[in-house]
Write a structure and sequence with these properties.
Length: about 375
């Protein structure tokens, strides 16, 4: 459990970094804080002293305590060697090492430092990462949004970056409620091409597995529906399995039930990504469903796990390292004062044929 003075420190810091308290504003008195946090005056003073030492507050004798922005110069953000913050949902999993490698490569060329944080797709961890970046005084920021298909409670922190003229760009997704530049795969097109490929091979009963707390999942479902609509194929809600970050650990069990229930109906499945595609293949082995003889599978993202798996997954490309490099390049150019930089960049996916799709014989 946190000491009481630390709770006050964290709370005031959050209010300063999110813009609830602005620079120069007088904060509530010690007696008001005592009441608010139900602590002694000594505890409040200890918190104020620590915040003053860190450069978040300054006390003026006989006047009160005010919000300071000295923390930014204390962090070293004003040195010649500029630092770019990078916040991704994950660091060591799936396609993220490639994206980070692209960012790092471009930043090294420009002699920029990198400050890395991950959120595990959790908004509370995203809040901490954003506070760290604001406290450090990064010169620019590259962010992969957390749970991008849901309302984000950390919007105030992004607005703080805007107010401080710190350029930032989003990758893989973006917050629809924010007007923010981004680099994204065309996720609608990715699932559309996957579904269209299956339709061209004679499949009419095509399932979908998608992650719905991220924008990518929403758009990948949109691409699936678009292809079904164009082919005049009926949409069956029971042929769709959705999951979210918190329910992902149950995916194996849910997949087992889903595939078992649909084994006599579905001939193909479009998967949210390669990770899900390979998990489907794994469950099919358990259920004695032969791939692609009984079920065709298409993944998405052309990840290293798809390239090294025992089964060669049919998938679609994702820019990965190129996206990271382009995002870093965008931030560098923005800091150099370049105008007319792109506000939206979509990469077009390309189908990569594997051995998990079968052409159905016309009856």
């Amino acid at each position: 459990m946190k000491p009481k003075y630390q709770v006050i420190i964290d709370d005031i810091k959050s209010k300063i970094l999110s813009g609830d308290y602005s620079v120069g504003e007088q904060i509530p008195t010690e007696s008001v804080m005592q009441e608010e946090y139900n602590v002694s005056r000594h505890t409040v003073r200890k918190a104020f002293l620590e915040l003053s030492n860190q450069g978040f507050l300054k006390s003026e004798k006989g006047s009160g305590t005010y919000v300071s922005n000295q923390y930014q110069s204390k962090s070293g953000g004003n040195s010649n060697n500029k630092t770019i913050g990078v916040i991704t949902t994950y660091i060591s999993d799936y396609i993220f090492p490639s994206i980070i490698r692209g960012i790092e490569g471009r930043l090294n060329e420009g002699n920029y430092s990198l400050l890395l944080a991950s959120t595990n797709n959790d908004v509370e961890q995203e809040k901490k990462a954003l506070e760290m970046m604001l406290s450090f005084g990064v010169d620019g920021l590259i962010i992969e949004p957390t749970k991008s298909n849901l309302y984000n409670p950390n919007i105030a922190y992004y607005l703080s970056f805007k107010e401080q003229d710190v350029p930032f760009i989003m990758i893989n997704a973006y917050y629809e409620e924010l007007d923010v530049p981004f680099f994204c795969l065309d996720d609608v097109q990715s699932s559309y091409l996957a579904t269209k490929e299956l339709i061209s091979k004679g499949h009419t009963q095509i399932g979908l597995i998608s992650k719905m707390d991220d924008l990518q999942g929403k758009y990948r479902m949109k691409g699936y529906l678009k292809a079904l609509g164009e082919a005049k194929l009926r949409f069956h809600p029971e042929q769709v399995l959705t999951f979210e970050t918190e329910t992902k650990p149950d995916l194996y069990t849910n997949l087992k039930d889903f595939l078992d229930e649909n084994r006599d109906v579905l001939t193909a499945i479009v998967c949210y990504n390669d990770e899900v595609g390979l998990e489907v293949a794994n469950v099919c082995r358990q259920l004695d469903i032969s791939i692609p003889e009984n079920l065709s599978i298409i993944g998405q993202d052309n990840s290293y796990i798809a390239k090294t798996a025992s089964i060669k997954l049919t998938t679609l490309t994702h820019p990965q390292e190129q996206m990271g490099r382009d995002a870093a390049d965008w931030v560098i150019k923005k800091l150099q004062g370049k105008k007319d930089l792109p506000n939206q960049t979509y990469y077009q996916p390309v189908l990569i044929e594997g051995e998990t799709v079968k052409e159905l014989e016309v009856q």
